[in-house]
């Protein structure tokens, strides 16, 4: 896709992921993109922030208002009337009474809760006085928190990857990064995280010299980082061959759900692998749907003779028809589906119990770092359950003292052991983000991370034309 493919609306461009998105410093409202503070405009009505106007074709805060962020203009005066002889302004902790009878704050202060409170680099006594996001009171002065850097007097921008952001512009202190859908700074496409503060070109990424290509044994050839050979000692050595890892033979090989290309320079997606076009998917009877290779209608994934294949799933009339497949029952839709509290495992045609469900041997508990203990599936020693299907080593789990420390309260909470855990019917997407499975709470479609699922009546459900056969799988309706 090109920018011209997105020309039906103003201020929309084609992103690196081939999606029509708003330009830098514009926000999507309905079907249009509206400018934030500092962006191009034609008339006052174009500007999104409340109390902003269009001046010299740029959105700016109105008189007596100052920007608190790209999207907010805050007042610098108090609405009460005053005169120069009374003490109303001083009593209300405002600076002075002007000739037109308004109580005004000192420079670099804004009104909040009928008080003048400071922007960055102004005097303060306690943290609550500092209104700028990610700022605090240090040595009686409002300053950005560690890992954030000041821009002007009204913004604290992250200086490290994975720290919080709202817009791509918030990540401008980290070259070649952007704000992800999970509202954290990440490296842009064709770049990878070299350190907490550096995004370096991946194999195939743009470069100007060999110095730009930081992956071992890679060089800048025709302005693109390329490998001369693919030896490795650790998985990290293969990070720039997308979807690969280091084998016991010290060679980069493709991860599960991917197949090496003929020239062994890339990994091609099998079922469950990421894709952009149907042609990307190499498994017969599969196509690309919601950016994942999936079996076509009336087909389901299975491993046959050691290969990922798509095979037909037969309908059923009673539970006996499903008896040959472990933990399957005949659903109300008359298709073999997982029993309650069992999940379709690894895109294969069998189901495995979630945490605390019955088992007889370790083989019954198939999720990573599970084992069978006292006849129920539990995390292995030194591991901790962060969702119904995930156990993480305790040292890597996010610590908390209250639910608010775990981010989104719809999907995560603070456990009695003071670890952030996903609520029921949710799974861990990254170290600090939980997204819902089928039946989990949601308020927008992109929170429903399972293929072929959407948000309906604030719950993740299979979209039209698909049916649920497990809490974590939707298949084409027969």
Topology, pairings included?
Elements: E1 12-14, E2 20-22, E3 26-29, E4 32-35, E5 52-55, E6 58-61, E7 65-69, E8 72-75, E9 77-81, H1 88-91, E10 96-97, E11 102-104, E12 109-112, E13 115-118, E14 135-138, E15 141-144, E16 148-151, E17 155-158, E18 177-179, E19 185-187, E20 191-193, E21 199-201, E22 218-221, E23 224-227, E24 244-246, E25 252-254, E26 258-260, E27 267-269, E28 286-289, E29 292-295, E30 299-304, E31 307-312, E32 328-330, E33 336-338, E34 342-344, E35 351-353, E36 370-373, E37 376-379, E38 383-387, E39 390-393, E40 412-414, E41 420-422, E42 426-430, E43 433-436, E44 453-456, E45 459-462, E46 466-470, E47 473-476
Antiparallel strand pairs: 1-2, 3-4, 5-6, 7-8, 9-11, 10-11, 12-13, 14-15, 16-17, 18-19, 20-21, 22-23, 24-25, 26-27, 28-29, 30-31, 32-33, 34-35, 36-37, 38-39, 40-41, 42-43, 44-45, 46-47
Task: Explain how this protein is built.
Residues 40-74, 81-117, 129-157, 274-311, 358-392, 433-475 form the EGF-like domain. This is EGF-like domain-containing protein. InterPro entries: EGF. This protein has 478 residues and is mainly beta. The strands form 23 sheets. Strands 9-11-10 form a three-stranded antiparallel beta sheet. The protein has a two-stranded antiparallel ribbon with strand order 1-2. Strands 3-4 form a two-stranded antiparallel ribbon. Strand 24 (244-246) and strand 25 (252-254) form a beta hairpin. The protein is globular.
